[in-house]
Amino acid sequence: MREAGLDAAYADHGLGVYPMTAAGSAFSADMIQSTGNPVADLYEDMAAEQKAKATYEYLLDLIDDPDAADPIKFLREREVVHFQRFGEALRCVEERLENKHMFYGK
Ligand SMILES: [Fe+2]
Prior knowledge:
This protein has helices spanning about 5-15, 40-60, 65-100. By secondary structure, it is mainly alpha-helical.
């Protein structure tokens, strides 16, 4: 933990899960982007998936160990699938809005 620069995090949280950015900013509810508008929220979800994919690509730039890189490559590909699924959901919502079956006007 010390060699990885995680000694302070270990001292505060042990081996417990404590979500934070690579720069050490702790996760908070302020990071949740939700408007209640399904179109806006789905676009936000899609952007989040692309951001996660970009983060995995940056991590891969920093990693030489294939035992560490392979799981990150797998997770990166999952973000692509998540992006595609949110896109499908967005198309469904937009179709429903156009048919005036649900939600509220444009
Ligand atoms: Fe994802």
